Amino acid sequence: xxxxxxxxxxxxxxxxxxxxxxxxxxxxxxxxxxxxxxxxxxxxxxxxxxxxxxxxxxxxxxxxxxxxxxxxxxxxxxxxxxxxxxxxxxxxxxxxxxxxxxxxxxxxxxxxxxxxxxxxxxxxxxxxxxxxxxxxxxxxxxxxxxxxxxxxxxxxxxxxxxxxxxxxxxxxxxxxxxxxxxxxxxxxxxxxxxxxxxxxxxxxxxxxxxxxxxxxxxxxxxxxxxxxxxxxxxxxxxxxxxxxxxxxxxxxxxxxxxxxxxxxxx
Length: 266
Known about the structure:
The protein is α/β, with parallel strands linked by helices. It has 2 domains: about 5-155, Roll (2,3-Dihydroxybiphenyl 1,2-Dioxygenase, domain 1); about 160-265, 2,3-Dihydroxybiphenyl 1,2-Dioxygenase, domain 1. Helix content is about 25%, strand content about 35%. It has an 8-stranded mixed beta sheet. A 6-stranded mixed beta sheet has the order 10-9-11-14-13-12. The longest helix has 10 residues, at about 15-25. The chain is globular. The chain starts with 6 loop residues before the first strand and ends with a strand. About 45% of the residues are buried. The model has no long low-confidence stretch (mean pLDDT about 95).
């Protein structure tokens, strides 16, 4: 059995977390409360679905303004920066990755506080970093949630006004497609697709919507929705730029903090 079989979440780097939160709410998406990475100066909001989610990762104080995330955003701009695969047991997955010849770092325990209803809990997880898998400008890692009941502590976090139900596809642009595909840890996933295409093919697929996205790396995310027409109506009401096709609605990268967001029929 392949050591990695599912997508857990996608990380989008943003310069201003509050501004990004406002933007993604206008897209009709529900966000979790702000989570803080204590001592790092960064924080996040997550967009939760049943088996996947999107993490908006941004700078929230001067500590973060001098850290690696700020360096990345200043050098490259906002946009998709990471793919997290899911696993149930970090130690077993680490052993399976090593057996498969994938250079993986030992599991690293991490946590962040969650304040709800006057109570503080700690969201705990274990990450396995995959630093030698060199996709263009895209980190890959495996995330095991030790407190999954806290990750999705509120059912309403998964209820989105635009009818979104999950991440369907991550689109990566790369000049050398075959070489990039060989660097994917999760080449076959059960709950989402990762597509590696040339920048020219990305241009053909997304056209002017690519303006504001990087030339390589993660350039687009496709999110499943029940009714693209309803999603388009919400975008129109919120005055969010978008284009419509028969089965999808596309928000350009320059209106979504560096990544094309495509809402497509389930």
